[in-house]
Amino acid sequence: MKKNQHVVPHQDGWAVKGEGNSKATKVTKTQTEAIESARKIAKNQESELFIHKKDGTIRGRDSYGNDPVESKG
User: Region Disordered: what ranges (predicted)?
Assistant: First the structure.
């Protein structure tokens, strides 16, 4: 199942969480490590990656497979 991945603040650093999951898939010390891990998962699942700031707002996002297909016509 395709689940969007979120990089969010965590008490021990940063967490990778699948959308709708209550538990983190992975917890890392740095946001960079969490982004790398989440990016791999999102690419594998062809889903979206959302990167949050410490205050919880979204600072960036990437799409891996959910982009609309351009018509040639």
Answer: 1-28, 54-73
pTM for the full predicted model: 0.86
Q: Give strand pairing partners of 10.
A: 13
Instruction: Give the integer Cα–Cα distance in Å for 14 and 33.
Output: 8
Q: How many CB atoms lie within 10 A of CB 3?
A: 16
Report DSSP state, residue 1. Answer: -
